[in-house]
Amino acid sequence: MPAKAQWLLRVPEILEELRTLDVPVVDRAVCERLFRLRRRRAIDLIHFFGGYQAGRTFLIDRPKLVAQLEQIRDSPDFKMEWRRKERLAERLDAIRRLQAGARVAIPVEPEVLSQRLPDLPAGIGLSPGELHIQFRSSEELLSKLFALAQAIANDYEAFEKRTTGE
Predict the structure, then answer these.
(1) Which of 12, 16, 59, 165 is the most buried (most CB within 10 A)?
(2) Residue 93 counted as domain residue
(3) How many domains are there within the chain?
């Protein structure tokens, strides 16, 4: 049998196209187009699904093919593969989002690593219930947020007092 991985996840799409056809049999050329396979693989697939050869033409009964593809679509293997594909797509999307952020260069001065709350950069205002940050670019905003985070990490008690008003 041909490798399912090439066409397995496209079974619902293939079924939809097969249902629009009003012919009793499907030949090799149609199988090639539907399954996006080359000649030899399409012939193998026709044989796998119980097709036959009439002269030099390879054929398969369309209703029989539809029924077998519906069984595949409803099988646990198909559902498992579909879920695997969804999880993979989600992971790839997450990686793409992370890569976009990782490409941003944030200018950080060495003194920021020892930043304390009283010495926050200009444009950062922190008071009970409010945080104000003035910036001109996304990089500047990220730089100021990093400085604030460093100041909080270096002096959490002062941060807590400043945000609660003690």
Answers:
(1) 59
(2) no
(3) 2
